[in-house]
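Dear support,

Our group has been running a series of protein-ligand predictions, and this particular one with flavin-adenine dinucleotide is the one our PI (initials K.S.) wants archived with full inputs and outputs. We had some confusion internally about which version of the output was final, so please treat the block below as the authoritative record. The input we submitted was:
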Amino acid sequence: PDADVKVQVAVLGGGPGGYTAAFRAADLGLSVALIDRGEQLGGVCLNVGCIPSKALLHVAKVMTEAAELGEAGITFEAPKIDVDQVRAFKNKVVGRLTGGLEQLAKQRKVQVVRGTGEFTSPNTIQVGDTVVGFENCIIASGSEAASLPFLPEDSRIVDSTGALEVDGIPGRLLVIGGGIIGLEMATVYDALGSKVTVVELLDQLIPGADKDLIRVLEKRVKGRYEAIHLATGVESVEASDEGLKVKFGEHTEVFDRILVAVGRKPNGKVIAAEKAGVNVTDRGFIESDLQMKTNVAHIYSIGDVRGEPMLAHKATHEGSLAAEVISGENVSWDVRSIPSVAYTDPEVAWTGLTETQAKAEGKEVEVAGFPWAASGRALSMGRSDGLTKLILEPGTNRILGAGIVGVNAGELLAEAVLAIEAGLDAEDIALTIHPHPTLSETVGFSAEQAEGTITDLM
Ligand code: FAD
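Confirmed final output from the archive:
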Protein backbone atom coordinates (compact mmCIF):
# COMPACT_ATOMS: atom_id res chain seq x y z
CA PRO A 1 0.00 0.00 0.00
CA ASP A 2 1.03 3.61 -0.52
CA ALA A 3 2.34 5.30 2.59
CA ASP A 4 0.06 7.84 4.30
CA VAL A 5 3.06 9.59 5.77
CA LYS A 6 6.28 9.72 3.75
CA VAL A 7 9.46 10.83 5.47
CA GLN A 8 13.21 10.66 5.17
CA VAL A 9 13.47 9.54 8.79
CA ALA A 10 10.98 7.57 10.89
CA VAL A 11 11.82 7.33 14.58
CA LEU A 12 10.13 4.46 16.42
CA GLY A 13 9.82 5.44 20.10
CA GLY A 14 9.52 8.91 21.66
CA GLY A 15 11.77 8.56 24.72
CA PRO A 16 14.97 10.57 25.27
CA GLY A 17 16.76 8.63 22.52
CA GLY A 18 13.91 8.93 20.04
CA TYR A 19 12.94 12.57 20.53
CA THR A 20 16.58 13.69 20.52
CA ALA A 21 17.15 11.82 17.25
CA ALA A 22 13.96 13.24 15.73
CA PHE A 23 14.76 16.83 16.71
CA ARG A 24 18.36 16.59 15.55
CA ALA A 25 17.33 15.09 12.21
CA ALA A 26 14.76 17.87 11.70
CA ASP A 27 17.33 20.52 12.61
CA LEU A 28 19.61 19.02 9.97
CA GLY A 29 16.89 19.59 7.37
CA LEU A 30 15.38 16.10 7.13
CA SER A 31 11.65 15.31 7.14
CA VAL A 32 10.80 13.32 10.26
CA ALA A 33 7.99 11.24 11.77
CA LEU A 34 8.13 10.37 15.49
CA ILE A 35 6.04 7.34 16.42
CA ASP A 36 5.06 6.66 20.04
CA ARG A 37 2.31 4.67 21.74
CA GLY A 38 2.27 6.75 24.92
CA GLU A 39 -0.20 9.50 25.76
CA GLN A 40 2.67 11.93 26.09
CA LEU A 41 6.09 12.03 24.45
CA GLY A 42 9.11 11.51 26.66
CA GLY A 43 9.17 7.74 27.03
CA VAL A 44 10.11 6.06 30.27
CA CYS A 45 12.54 8.74 31.41
CA LEU A 46 10.13 11.69 31.45
CA ASN A 47 6.88 9.86 32.25
CA VAL A 48 7.79 7.01 34.59
CA GLY A 49 11.57 7.14 35.13
CA CYS A 50 14.29 9.72 35.69
CA ILE A 51 12.12 12.78 36.16
CA PRO A 52 9.22 11.65 38.40
CA SER A 53 11.68 9.72 40.58
CA LYS A 54 13.82 12.83 41.02
CA ALA A 55 10.78 14.95 41.89
CA LEU A 56 9.89 12.47 44.65
CA LEU A 57 13.52 12.19 45.76
CA HIS A 58 13.61 15.97 46.14
CA VAL A 59 10.61 15.77 48.48
CA ALA A 60 12.33 12.97 50.40
CA LYS A 61 15.56 14.95 50.67
CA VAL A 62 13.97 18.07 52.09
CA MET A 63 11.99 16.00 54.62
CA THR A 64 15.05 14.07 55.76
CA GLU A 65 17.22 17.17 56.03
CA ALA A 66 14.59 18.98 58.05
CA ALA A 67 14.25 16.03 60.41
CA GLU A 68 18.01 15.95 60.92
CA LEU A 69 18.36 19.61 61.84
CA GLY A 70 17.83 18.78 65.51
CA GLU A 71 21.60 18.65 65.89
CA ALA A 72 21.71 22.35 64.97
CA GLY A 73 19.01 23.18 67.48
CA ILE A 74 16.06 23.30 65.12
CA THR A 75 13.21 20.84 65.43
CA PHE A 76 10.01 20.55 63.42
CA GLU A 77 6.81 18.75 64.20
CA ALA A 78 6.15 15.48 62.43
CA PRO A 79 5.35 16.25 58.79
CA LYS A 80 1.77 16.14 57.52
CA ILE A 81 1.77 14.23 54.26
CA ASP A 82 -0.91 14.74 51.64
CA VAL A 83 -0.12 11.95 49.16
CA ASP A 84 -2.49 13.34 46.54
CA GLN A 85 -0.58 16.61 46.62
CA VAL A 86 2.77 14.80 46.48
CA ARG A 87 1.53 12.99 43.37
CA ALA A 88 0.20 16.24 41.91
CA PHE A 89 3.60 17.93 42.40
CA LYS A 90 5.35 15.05 40.64
CA ASN A 91 2.79 15.05 37.81
CA LYS A 92 3.19 18.80 37.33
CA VAL A 93 6.95 18.46 36.89
CA VAL A 94 6.43 15.65 34.36
CA GLY A 95 3.69 17.62 32.56
CA ARG A 96 5.91 20.70 32.14
CA LEU A 97 8.59 18.63 30.42
CA THR A 98 6.38 16.43 28.24
CA GLY A 99 4.30 19.46 27.21
CA GLY A 100 7.54 21.20 26.25
CA LEU A 101 8.41 18.30 23.96
CA GLU A 102 5.15 18.63 22.04
CA GLN A 103 6.03 22.29 21.41
CA LEU A 104 9.55 21.45 20.32
CA ALA A 105 8.20 18.83 17.89
CA LYS A 106 5.73 21.31 16.43
CA GLN A 107 8.35 24.04 15.99
CA ARG A 108 10.49 21.64 13.99
CA LYS A 109 7.60 20.24 11.94
CA VAL A 110 8.27 16.75 13.27
CA GLN A 111 5.10 14.72 12.58
CA VAL A 112 4.09 12.92 15.75
CA VAL A 113 2.25 9.68 14.94
CA ARG A 114 0.51 8.18 17.97
CA GLY A 115 -0.01 4.46 18.40
CA THR A 116 1.87 1.19 18.42
CA GLY A 117 4.17 0.85 15.44
CA GLU A 118 5.20 -2.39 13.76
CA PHE A 119 7.35 -2.92 10.71
CA THR A 120 5.51 -4.27 7.67
CA SER A 121 8.53 -4.13 5.33
CA PRO A 122 12.10 -2.72 5.32
CA ASN A 123 10.61 0.69 4.40
CA THR A 124 7.22 0.83 6.13
CA ILE A 125 5.81 0.89 9.65
CA GLN A 126 2.10 0.39 10.35
CA VAL A 127 0.68 2.54 13.15
CA GLY A 128 -3.03 1.79 13.58
CA ASP A 129 -4.55 2.72 10.21
CA THR A 130 -1.59 4.82 9.20
CA VAL A 131 1.29 3.57 7.09
CA VAL A 132 4.54 5.46 7.61
CA GLY A 133 6.93 5.10 4.68
CA PHE A 134 10.57 5.97 5.32
CA GLU A 135 13.99 6.10 3.71
CA ASN A 136 15.74 5.62 7.08
CA CYS A 137 14.46 4.41 10.42
CA ILE A 138 15.79 4.83 13.95
CA ILE A 139 14.54 2.19 16.39
CA ALA A 140 14.29 3.73 19.87
CA SER A 141 11.67 1.50 21.47
CA GLY A 142 13.37 1.47 24.87
CA SER A 143 12.75 -1.04 27.64
CA GLU A 144 10.24 -2.09 30.26
CA ALA A 145 10.41 -3.44 33.82
CA ALA A 146 11.31 -7.12 34.11
CA SER A 147 9.23 -9.30 36.42
CA LEU A 148 9.54 -12.54 38.39
CA PRO A 149 7.57 -15.52 37.04
CA PHE A 150 6.16 -16.72 40.37
CA LEU A 151 4.52 -13.47 41.52
CA PRO A 152 0.73 -13.53 41.87
CA GLU A 153 -1.44 -10.87 40.18
CA ASP A 154 -2.10 -8.40 42.98
CA SER A 155 -2.44 -4.63 43.04
CA ARG A 156 -0.14 -4.52 46.06
CA ILE A 157 2.75 -5.86 43.96
CA VAL A 158 4.09 -3.03 41.80
CA ASP A 159 7.00 -2.19 39.52
CA SER A 160 8.76 1.20 39.47
CA THR A 161 5.87 2.72 37.49
CA GLY A 162 3.40 1.67 40.20
CA ALA A 163 5.68 2.87 42.98
CA LEU A 164 6.00 6.30 41.32
CA GLU A 165 2.21 6.67 41.50
CA VAL A 166 2.52 7.04 45.31
CA ASP A 167 -0.79 5.28 45.82
CA GLY A 168 -0.66 5.61 49.61
CA ILE A 169 2.25 4.96 51.94
CA PRO A 170 2.58 1.26 52.82
CA GLY A 171 3.45 0.32 56.41
CA ARG A 172 5.93 -2.38 55.50
CA LEU A 173 7.47 -2.24 52.02
CA LEU A 174 9.59 -4.99 50.51
CA VAL A 175 11.90 -3.93 47.71
CA ILE A 176 13.03 -6.87 45.59
CA GLY A 177 16.28 -5.81 43.93
CA GLY A 178 18.97 -3.59 45.45
CA GLY A 179 19.97 -1.86 42.22
CA ILE A 180 19.66 1.83 41.40
CA ILE A 181 15.92 1.88 40.71
CA GLY A 182 14.96 -0.21 43.76
CA LEU A 183 17.11 1.85 46.11
CA GLU A 184 15.89 5.20 44.76
CA MET A 185 12.30 4.18 45.45
CA ALA A 186 13.36 2.80 48.85
CA THR A 187 14.82 6.25 49.62
CA VAL A 188 11.49 7.90 48.78
CA TYR A 189 9.27 5.54 50.78
CA ASP A 190 11.66 5.49 53.74
CA ALA A 191 11.41 9.29 53.95
CA LEU A 192 7.62 9.15 53.62
CA GLY A 193 7.49 6.79 56.59
CA SER A 194 7.36 3.22 55.28
CA LYS A 195 9.40 0.52 56.99
CA VAL A 196 11.64 -0.68 54.18
CA THR A 197 13.22 -4.09 53.65
CA VAL A 198 15.54 -4.69 50.70
CA VAL A 199 16.36 -8.12 49.30
CA GLU A 200 19.20 -8.40 46.77
CA LEU A 201 20.36 -11.58 45.03
CA LEU A 202 24.02 -10.53 44.74
CA ASP A 203 26.31 -9.87 47.70
CA GLN A 204 26.34 -6.07 47.28
CA LEU A 205 23.85 -3.24 46.84
CA ILE A 206 24.18 -1.49 43.45
CA PRO A 207 26.29 -4.21 41.86
CA GLY A 208 28.61 -2.43 39.43
CA ALA A 209 29.79 0.29 41.80
CA ASP A 210 32.95 -0.19 43.90
CA LYS A 211 32.53 -1.68 47.39
CA ASP A 212 34.17 1.22 49.27
CA LEU A 213 31.57 3.60 47.84
CA ILE A 214 28.70 1.25 48.66
CA ARG A 215 29.94 0.84 52.23
CA VAL A 216 29.21 4.52 52.87
CA LEU A 217 25.68 4.19 51.48
CA GLU A 218 25.11 0.96 53.38
CA LYS A 219 26.16 2.48 56.67
CA ARG A 220 23.49 5.14 56.38
CA VAL A 221 20.63 3.04 55.07
CA LYS A 222 21.26 0.27 57.61
CA GLY A 223 20.40 2.79 60.29
CA ARG A 224 17.16 3.75 58.54
CA TYR A 225 15.74 0.64 56.87
CA GLU A 226 14.19 -2.26 58.73
CA ALA A 227 16.47 -4.79 57.03
CA ILE A 228 18.79 -5.38 54.09
CA HIS A 229 19.30 -8.97 52.97
CA LEU A 230 22.17 -9.51 50.55
CA ALA A 231 22.93 -12.72 48.64
CA THR A 232 19.29 -13.63 49.14
CA GLY A 233 16.62 -14.56 46.62
CA VAL A 234 12.87 -14.29 47.10
CA GLU A 235 11.43 -17.77 46.70
CA SER A 236 7.69 -17.27 46.87
CA VAL A 237 4.96 -14.71 47.47
CA GLU A 238 1.46 -15.55 48.69
CA ALA A 239 -1.25 -12.91 48.63
CA SER A 240 -3.99 -12.86 51.25
CA ASP A 241 -6.20 -10.29 52.97
CA GLU A 242 -3.64 -9.96 55.79
CA GLY A 243 -0.87 -9.03 53.41
CA LEU A 244 1.80 -10.45 51.15
CA LYS A 245 3.54 -13.45 52.70
CA VAL A 246 7.06 -13.63 51.34
CA LYS A 247 9.60 -16.42 51.69
CA PHE A 248 13.26 -15.48 51.31
CA GLY A 249 16.37 -17.15 52.77
CA GLU A 250 15.50 -18.28 56.29
CA HIS A 251 12.65 -15.80 56.56
CA THR A 252 8.91 -15.76 56.02
CA GLU A 253 7.50 -12.28 56.54
CA VAL A 254 4.35 -10.37 55.74
CA PHE A 255 4.49 -7.06 53.84
CA ASP A 256 1.87 -4.50 52.82
CA ARG A 257 3.44 -3.84 49.46
CA ILE A 258 6.17 -5.19 47.22
CA LEU A 259 8.22 -3.22 44.72
CA VAL A 260 9.76 -5.46 42.08
CA ALA A 261 12.92 -3.81 40.72
CA VAL A 262 14.82 -6.72 39.22
CA GLY A 263 16.05 -5.08 36.04
CA ARG A 264 14.68 -4.02 32.68
CA LYS A 265 14.08 -5.87 29.48
CA PRO A 266 14.60 -4.30 26.07
CA ASN A 267 11.61 -3.72 23.74
CA GLY A 268 13.15 -5.37 20.68
CA LYS A 269 10.49 -7.99 20.25
CA VAL A 270 7.40 -5.77 20.11
CA ILE A 271 8.01 -4.05 16.78
CA ALA A 272 7.92 -6.94 14.25
CA ALA A 273 11.59 -6.28 13.45
CA GLU A 274 11.73 -9.50 11.42
CA LYS A 275 9.49 -7.93 8.74
CA ALA A 276 12.27 -5.44 8.11
CA GLY A 277 14.95 -8.12 8.35
CA VAL A 278 16.44 -6.57 11.50
CA ASN A 279 18.12 -9.02 13.90
CA VAL A 280 16.93 -9.15 17.51
CA THR A 281 18.92 -10.97 20.24
CA ASP A 282 17.29 -13.59 22.47
CA ARG A 283 17.03 -11.02 25.27
CA GLY A 284 15.34 -8.52 22.97
CA PHE A 285 18.21 -6.14 22.17
CA ILE A 286 18.69 -4.73 18.67
CA GLU A 287 22.42 -4.40 18.22
CA SER A 288 24.07 -1.77 16.06
CA ASP A 289 27.57 -0.64 15.10
CA LEU A 290 29.45 2.51 16.14
CA GLN A 291 27.32 4.53 13.71
CA MET A 292 24.16 2.99 15.23
CA LYS A 293 23.49 0.95 12.04
CA THR A 294 21.79 -2.42 12.54
CA ASN A 295 22.37 -5.36 10.19
CA VAL A 296 20.05 -3.49 7.79
CA ALA A 297 22.08 -0.47 6.69
CA HIS A 298 19.28 2.15 6.57
CA ILE A 299 17.80 1.06 9.94
CA TYR A 300 19.48 2.27 13.14
CA SER A 301 19.06 1.40 16.83
CA ILE A 302 19.69 3.60 19.87
CA GLY A 303 19.01 3.81 23.61
CA ASP A 304 17.88 1.04 25.96
CA VAL A 305 16.92 -1.28 23.10
CA ARG A 306 20.47 -1.04 21.72
CA GLY A 307 22.20 -2.25 24.89
CA GLU A 308 23.58 -1.55 28.35
CA PRO A 309 23.94 0.69 30.22
CA MET A 310 20.25 1.59 30.05
CA LEU A 311 20.61 5.29 30.82
CA ALA A 312 18.94 8.36 29.38
CA HIS A 313 22.15 10.31 28.68
CA LYS A 314 23.50 7.38 26.68
CA ALA A 315 20.24 7.24 24.70
CA THR A 316 20.29 10.96 23.85
CA HIS A 317 23.94 10.85 22.79
CA GLU A 318 23.27 7.89 20.50
CA GLY A 319 20.14 9.62 19.19
CA SER A 320 21.96 12.74 17.92
CA LEU A 321 24.68 10.57 16.48
CA ALA A 322 22.25 8.42 14.45
CA ALA A 323 20.57 11.56 13.07
CA GLU A 324 23.92 13.03 12.07
CA VAL A 325 25.00 9.83 10.33
CA ILE A 326 21.72 9.78 8.36
CA SER A 327 22.25 13.39 7.30
CA GLY A 328 25.58 12.39 5.81
CA GLU A 329 28.01 13.45 8.52
CA ASN A 330 31.02 11.21 8.91
CA VAL A 331 30.75 10.62 12.67
CA SER A 332 30.76 7.60 14.96
CA TRP A 333 30.54 6.66 18.65
CA ASP A 334 33.76 7.70 20.37
CA VAL A 335 32.93 8.04 24.04
CA ARG A 336 35.44 7.21 26.76
CA SER A 337 33.09 6.92 29.69
CA ILE A 338 29.38 6.90 30.44
CA PRO A 339 28.59 8.16 33.96
CA SER A 340 26.27 6.21 36.28
CA VAL A 341 24.47 7.84 39.21
CA ALA A 342 22.25 6.39 41.92
CA TYR A 343 20.25 9.30 43.36
CA THR A 344 20.01 7.59 46.72
CA ASP A 345 20.84 9.26 50.03
CA PRO A 346 23.82 9.58 49.88
CA GLU A 347 24.20 9.53 46.10
CA VAL A 348 26.60 7.07 44.49
CA ALA A 349 28.25 8.12 41.23
CA TRP A 350 30.96 6.55 39.12
CA THR A 351 32.41 6.73 35.65
CA GLY A 352 35.11 5.14 33.52
CA LEU A 353 37.14 2.31 34.97
CA THR A 354 36.15 1.07 38.44
CA GLU A 355 38.58 -0.62 40.84
CA THR A 356 36.48 -3.78 40.69
CA GLN A 357 36.75 -3.82 36.90
CA ALA A 358 40.49 -3.12 36.96
CA LYS A 359 41.01 -6.05 39.32
CA ALA A 360 38.86 -8.38 37.20
CA GLU A 361 40.79 -7.39 34.07
CA GLY A 362 44.17 -7.68 35.84
CA LYS A 363 44.90 -3.98 35.15
CA GLU A 364 47.30 -2.12 37.46
CA VAL A 365 45.87 1.18 38.69
CA GLU A 366 46.66 3.83 41.27
CA VAL A 367 43.86 5.12 43.47
CA ALA A 368 43.81 8.54 45.13
CA GLY A 369 40.95 9.37 47.43
CA PHE A 370 39.65 12.00 49.77
CA PRO A 371 37.28 11.24 52.67
CA TRP A 372 34.59 13.84 53.18
CA ALA A 373 35.21 13.91 56.94
CA ALA A 374 38.02 16.31 55.99
CA SER A 375 35.85 18.54 53.77
CA GLY A 376 34.78 21.80 55.39
CA ARG A 377 31.70 22.00 53.21
CA ALA A 378 30.58 18.43 53.92
CA LEU A 379 31.02 19.00 57.66
CA SER A 380 29.11 22.27 57.58
CA MET A 381 26.24 20.48 55.85
CA GLY A 382 26.20 17.86 58.57
CA ARG A 383 26.94 15.24 55.93
CA SER A 384 30.55 14.11 56.16
CA ASP A 385 29.53 10.60 55.07
CA GLY A 386 31.23 10.69 51.71
CA LEU A 387 34.25 9.68 49.69
CA THR A 388 35.75 10.92 46.43
CA LYS A 389 38.33 8.88 44.55
CA LEU A 390 40.16 8.93 41.26
CA ILE A 391 41.41 5.84 39.44
CA LEU A 392 44.69 6.62 37.70
CA GLU A 393 47.07 5.10 35.20
CA PRO A 394 50.32 4.22 37.03
CA GLY A 395 53.28 6.31 35.87
CA THR A 396 51.29 8.96 34.00
CA ASN A 397 48.50 9.66 36.54
CA ARG A 398 46.08 9.87 33.62
CA ILE A 399 42.52 9.73 34.90
CA LEU A 400 40.85 6.45 33.97
CA GLY A 401 37.88 6.50 36.32
CA ALA A 402 36.26 8.19 39.28
CA GLY A 403 33.89 7.22 42.05
CA ILE A 404 32.05 9.51 44.45
CA VAL A 405 29.61 8.79 47.25
CA GLY A 406 27.99 11.61 49.22
CA VAL A 407 25.33 14.28 48.89
CA ASN A 408 25.25 15.66 45.32
CA ALA A 409 27.81 13.10 44.11
CA GLY A 410 26.04 13.05 40.74
CA GLU A 411 26.67 16.75 40.14
CA LEU A 412 30.30 16.43 41.25
CA LEU A 413 31.01 13.58 38.87
CA ALA A 414 30.74 15.76 35.75
CA GLU A 415 34.24 17.17 36.27
CA ALA A 416 35.73 13.68 36.23
CA VAL A 417 33.75 12.70 33.12
CA LEU A 418 35.18 15.71 31.30
CA ALA A 419 38.68 14.88 32.57
CA ILE A 420 38.46 11.36 31.17
CA GLU A 421 36.96 12.56 27.88
CA ALA A 422 39.71 15.18 27.48
CA GLY A 423 42.49 12.75 28.47
CA LEU A 424 43.52 14.86 31.49
CA ASP A 425 45.83 13.68 34.26
CA ALA A 426 45.74 14.32 38.00
CA GLU A 427 48.04 17.33 37.66
CA ASP A 428 45.52 19.10 35.41
CA ILE A 429 42.88 18.80 38.11
CA ALA A 430 45.30 19.55 40.95
CA LEU A 431 46.31 22.81 39.25
CA THR A 432 42.68 23.79 38.71
CA ILE A 433 41.40 26.16 41.38
CA HIS A 434 38.21 24.75 42.88
CA PRO A 435 35.90 27.18 44.68
CA HIS A 436 36.15 27.04 48.47
CA PRO A 437 34.31 25.79 50.38
CA THR A 438 32.57 23.37 48.03
CA LEU A 439 32.24 19.64 47.72
CA SER A 440 34.01 19.99 44.33
CA GLU A 441 37.21 20.54 46.28
CA THR A 442 37.16 16.84 47.15
CA VAL A 443 37.89 16.14 43.46
CA GLY A 444 40.73 18.66 43.52
CA PHE A 445 42.10 17.24 46.80
CA SER A 446 42.01 13.69 45.40
CA ALA A 447 44.10 14.88 42.46
CA GLU A 448 46.53 16.67 44.81
CA GLN A 449 46.72 13.47 46.81
CA ALA A 450 47.76 11.67 43.62
CA GLU A 451 50.36 14.33 42.83
CA GLY A 452 51.66 14.29 46.40
CA THR A 453 51.12 18.05 46.65
CA ILE A 454 48.43 18.19 49.30
CA THR A 455 49.38 20.28 52.29
CA ASP A 456 46.26 21.37 54.08
CA LEU A 457 43.07 19.41 54.20
CA MET A 458 40.60 22.20 54.87
P1 FAD B 1 12.30 4.80 26.50
O1 FAD B 1 12.43 5.97 27.39
O2 FAD B 1 12.02 3.48 27.07
O3 FAD B 1 11.26 5.18 25.38
C1 FAD B 1 10.79 4.28 24.45
C2 FAD B 1 9.44 4.72 23.96
O4 FAD B 1 9.05 3.90 22.87
C3 FAD B 1 8.34 4.57 25.00
O5 FAD B 1 7.55 5.74 25.05
C4 FAD B 1 7.54 3.37 24.52
O6 FAD B 1 6.20 3.40 24.90
C5 FAD B 1 7.70 3.53 23.01
N1 FAD B 1 7.48 2.31 22.26
C6 FAD B 1 8.02 1.08 22.45
N2 FAD B 1 7.59 0.22 21.53
C7 FAD B 1 6.76 0.92 20.72
C8 FAD B 1 6.01 0.58 19.57
N3 FAD B 1 6.02 -0.65 19.05
N4 FAD B 1 5.26 1.55 18.99
C9 FAD B 1 5.22 2.82 19.50
N5 FAD B 1 5.92 3.18 20.57
C10 FAD B 1 6.69 2.25 21.18
N6 FAD B 1 18.23 6.99 33.45
C11 FAD B 1 19.08 7.99 33.73
O7 FAD B 1 19.97 8.28 32.94
N7 FAD B 1 18.96 8.71 34.91
C12 FAD B 1 18.01 8.43 35.82
O8 FAD B 1 17.93 9.09 36.84
C13 FAD B 1 17.09 7.37 35.54
N8 FAD B 1 16.12 7.07 36.43
C14 FAD B 1 15.24 6.08 36.12
C15 FAD B 1 14.24 5.78 37.04
C16 FAD B 1 13.33 4.78 36.77
C17 FAD B 1 12.24 4.46 37.77
C18 FAD B 1 13.41 4.05 35.54
C19 FAD B 1 12.43 2.97 35.20
C20 FAD B 1 14.42 4.34 34.63
C21 FAD B 1 15.34 5.35 34.91
N9 FAD B 1 16.37 5.66 34.01
C22 FAD B 1 17.23 6.67 34.32
C23 FAD B 1 16.52 4.96 32.72
C24 FAD B 1 15.94 5.79 31.57
O9 FAD B 1 14.58 6.02 31.83
C25 FAD B 1 16.12 5.07 30.25
O10 FAD B 1 17.48 4.76 30.04
C26 FAD B 1 15.65 5.92 29.09
O11 FAD B 1 14.29 6.26 29.21
C27 FAD B 1 15.88 5.20 27.76
O12 FAD B 1 15.45 5.99 26.70
P2 FAD B 1 15.00 5.35 25.32
O13 FAD B 1 14.74 6.52 24.43
O14 FAD B 1 15.96 4.34 24.89
O15 FAD B 1 13.65 4.55 25.60
